[in-house]
Fold this protein.
Amino acid sequence: MFSFLKSRWESIKIAFAGLLFVIRTQKNAWVHLSITALVIFGGVLVSLSRLEWVAVVITLGMVWAAETFNTAMEVLIDYVSPEQRPVAKTCKDISAAGVLIAALMSILVGVLVFGPRLWGWLWALTGWE
């Protein structure tokens, strides 16, 4: 049992090393990190419901997973094809499209979750009725 737990711990450490690589080397990961912090802060600020938190957490995870898969694809393509090739570019473009799709869907979820509250605040601040 101890060796099983030790090997799981090693796997977790390796995964965190991969995540830190993504954060250190990818400019878009800094954007994702900033938006993640802003969304979590905003969710606490407006007291999201449990179901809203589920939607937000799943969405954040989807974007981070897409970004890490994209980074892995780029690193692998750069390794196996260091010279410029059209097929390598196409693979990178498709991988980046996955991140774009996840990011666009996260915006939609953000609008659905935060939109009604922000709209209500806007109406309250402007005094419109």
